[in-house]
Predict the 3D structure of the following.
Amino acid sequence: MAKTVTRSGGSGTTSPALLASLDPLLREWLPRQRWFAGKGRPVTGFSLVAATELLPAGSRLGLYHLLLRAHQPDSAGDRYQLLIGVREALPPRLAPALIGHVTQGPLAGRTVYDALYDTRPTELLLEALRSRARIGALRCERDPEQEIRSGLVPRLMTAEQSNSSVVYGDTFILKLFRRVAPGVNPDLELPLALAREGCPRVPAPTAWMETEVDGESYVLGVLQPYVQGATDGWELALRELAKGEDFVAEARALGRATAEVHGALARALPTATLGPAQIQPMVDGMVVRLEAAAQAVPALRPYAPALRTAFTALADLAAEGHTWTAQRVHGDLHLGQCLRAPSGEWSLIDFEGEPARPPAERRMAQPAVRDVAGMLRSFDYAAHSCERPAPGWAHACRAAYCSGYAEAAGRDPRTDPVLLRAFETDKAVYEVVYEARHRPDWLPVPLSAIHRLASPDLP
């Protein structure tokens, strides 16, 4: 029977021993995971936020749900969600899930592993969501209008980055957040709001898992319908590029879908008006990010003065009395966050926002053009990712996307060029820093955009 071993500040005697037994293994394993955010800095220790025993560790298969804080230099300590399986030995099929062999503490002599690779633990998660289970501090909620059948075969998706996802049959997909923070998670908040608004462009949450620790709530995972046979926009764009085909019709349809989602969000949630008092701090942040990026990446420095004008022009326009509407947005929109169903319909997914930004910032109302700028940058990336040259491909996609957006929204993002240029420049500056740090071979992609955005005659 499942039980809560401890909670933050608890006095249980099991939890310190459990954490001590796992500590040396997790220090090696955690930084190697694609979803670990603190790469490049050593893990100096862990503290337990919460631990729930889902299956007894003394049985053939033990199972723990853990929330851990990973301590690193120059970090407040990110919190991570782990599902730890415990076995005497791993069968060959679970070799990729190995965390290590425990040599001390209550699990000494046993093998621990990432249980999301294992069928039985992931079946248990679906059953907990289906039955609205309460397991220790964990609680599951669901939409009573949607049926969750038992017996669906789970499989872990291996192409994940910041989170992990399990597909059940071809019916549902469970997204488990790896790095978690207390408070409202927009990846649940926004799809629920869109479902209430009747927006068909975003799969409505079927069920979700939460916990509360020391008065703070955490969203741990969201179950949504799985769009069977869907292709994500990035894969589809690269496929068309490889065949020498254009992507104009799809880009236009994707623009319409984006505008429909923005319209539904504006109806479902509060909007705000941005004047000089709101725009100036936004511009200041863009300038600070540009200056930090120029210090970090020397190749950016010659462009910095011209790029700064993209931001100051926005502040100048606000000072003249111009205002803009801010609303909730996707926050990290690109081709990989879009799914095209076999019917040809586009859906938007993954409303978590940019993982590097604080949760409160991700939930702020912003101009909808921020999402548009992210998608325009994504077309550039796709064009540069193809081995065969594709002159004009990205430009045609960008134009079609904006035209499609205008068809659904009644306004074309290009009619506000100062705002669009500011957000696209801010995104390209972010990309320069990211590529310089993580993928130097890709640095020419955002630098080519920087060259264009720094031009006084922006096309």
